[in-house]
Amino acid sequence: MAHGSRLVDLVHARLEEFLAERTSILRSISPDLDPLTSFSGRFLSGGKRFRALFCYWGWEAVGARGFDPFETGGRDLFPVVSAASALEVFHAAALVHDDIIDNSDTRRGAPAAHRLFEALHADSGWAGSGSDFGRASAILLGDLLLGWSDELLDEGLGALSDQQAARTARAEFIRMRTEVTAGQYLDILEERAWLTQPGSEQRTRAERVIVYKAAKYSVEAPLTIGGAIAGASVVQLSALRDFGLPLGIAYQLRDDLLGVYGDPDVTGKPSGDDLREGKRTMLVAIARERLAPGQRRLLDELLGDPDLGADQVRMLQRTLSECGAVDEVERIIADNVARATAVLADAPLGREARSELGSLARSVSRRTS
């Protein structure tokens, strides 16, 4: 994973450079805008950079250059590093908006953006509602980050000599943006409309949310954007999709398990946070299929209660586990990882990249945060 660590360093440097440039622009307008850039820096400084890594290895898988781009002056790395950085900024925007939607207090063990602005309001002694100011300001921060992700992508694509590759990469990015927004809406919808939907459809509907809210934008789209920048053929893009989608599903299913059972010291989120938020995940859909009517009613009554106590969370955790839902989700994760890695066996992609993608598949499906 030497290339991966060097890519992460380049993305970090690119983000710092870009943020410094945008800080200068905002500062020229007013120093009152400093919180926008300082809070942006917080959300862009952490994370596992999985999307950036998938973008790079999609690029490398298609290019199969036969030389180390990091050791040859990085002459053709700028477009893919910029695209990888754009994906990280897009992800930060999505997290800011997601925390507002979910009314989450924390992100990666620190206050969510709307809580940071709320605290700024309180500390400054300003008029009006602190929560209203925090929410409105965080929405604008998310919007600003979305715009910045476009700027980063365009700067990278503008450096490509192959304009068809640039157009294809841009189309992949636009498609990703539409799909994740649609998936986010479907997620919100399921939390509220599940009661009116046939029980037999809830697993299918939960999977649809996984595919469009997370799987495509977390794994598939970064791979195809990177591949497109390298001039991927239709067959190569298809192989990247065939690998990326099942792995993205496994990635999100692991996230769903962590949202219920994760160690808060590792995840940066309170234990059982998804239970308090009422997430209608695949885990919940499977449990509802397996539970007796009385247990199912109790699950439905408690799920989504923001005031769930520790004992109630532990009881729900036991219920989900003892009915076999957790074991089934683990089997689905393993099946999807197997589907993804099987694609790599004879995909028309570079050998080293296929090996690294196999390693990434294991990392994202077994992670603890």
Automatic annotation (TrEMBL):
Pfam families: polyprenyl_synt (PF00348). PROSITE patterns: POLYPRENYL_SYNTHASE_1 (PS00723), POLYPRENYL_SYNTHASE_2 (PS00444). SUPFAM superfamilies: Terpenoid synthases (SSF48576). CDD domains: Trans_IPPS_HT (cd00685). InterPro entries: Isoprenoid_synthase_dom_sf (IPR008949), Polyprenyl_synt (IPR000092), Polyprenyl_synt_CS (IPR033749). GO terms for molecular function: metal ion binding; prenyltransferase activity. Its cofactor is Mg(2+). Keywords: Magnesium, Metal-binding, Transferase. The keyword Cell wall biogenesis/degradation does not apply. Belongs to the FPP/GGPP synthase family. This is Polyprenyl synthetase. It comes from Agromyces bauzanensis.
